[in-house]
Amino acid sequence: MEFECIIYEKQDHLAVIKLNRPKVLNAMNRQLWLDVQDALKDAGDDSDIRVLIITGEGRAFSTGADLKESKTRSLEDYRKYLEELQEATRKILRFEKPTIAAVNGYALGSGYELALACDLRIAADEAQIGSPEAKVTSSVTGGAMRLVQVLVGPAKAKELLFTGEYIDGKEAERIGLVNRSVPLDELWNATTAMARKIAENSSFSIKMIKKGLQIAQGEASMEALMDFEIEACLACVSTKERQASLKTFENRKE
């Protein structure tokens, strides 16, 4: 299969989606989300695939929405982008096979949220993870309003989302946001080792366990939450301060 914004590979019962816009640190556009959905369908339909890994090409997992595109989008185009983002996230959340995010660098905004949607997360020690939405007059998507709280608790989730501060992989592991943090040069081996350990087990058992865990979390209300996230994000980007926030964010010192 040929893709514009991802690299998709399959080997030894594992499927890998690698976000592939390295020149913009894998910033996300609508086509990327469409590519991810197509790869998810292929991996889901392939009975030989037991685990799916998502990672990024280059020095970032993903820095989130492509802000250059965001500045020129109409509200209707923005809604279409958000709907594809949410649909891709829904498909990851509902994916019957285990998913692992290998967070190799920056994982910001909707890039961070993509990692949250996966079942497991392994991060590089030096990865920078966070939600800068409040800094650019936007709002979180991808079910993050629930997913972050489930992982780190309500108070810590509010701290992370309200401040927009980034944390590294080690801190993310300490607070339970990721399962493991390892040196960058060990990330791929650690991720594939976990994936192969899972792949050795009964795929049907894991399918049933995953479905049960989803039911326990309340799938129906998650749907309502994700619909709300679209409206919240559109309301934010419609404000007068949006463009000023983007300019300030682009000019910030790293």
Bin the helical content.
40-55%
Helix/strand order = EEHEEHHEEHEEHHEHEHHHH
Low-confidence stretches: none
CATH class: Alpha Beta
Query: What's the N-to-C terminus distance?
Result: 37 Å
Q: Output the CATH topology.
A: 2-enoyl-CoA Hydratase, Chain A, domain 1
**Strand percentage:** 15-25%
Fold and architecture overview:
The chain is α/β, with parallel strands linked by helices and 254 residues long. It has a single domain, classed as 2-enoyl-CoA Hydratase, Chain A, domain 1. It has eleven helices and ten strands. Strands 1-2-3-5-7-10 form a six-stranded mixed β-sheet, with helices on both faces. The chain has a four-stranded mixed β-sheet with strand order 4-6-8-9. Strand 2, helix 1 and strand 3 form a beta-alpha-beta unit. Helix 3 packs antiparallel against helix 10. The radius of gyration is 17 Å and the shape is globular. The model has no long low-confidence stretch (mean pLDDT 91).
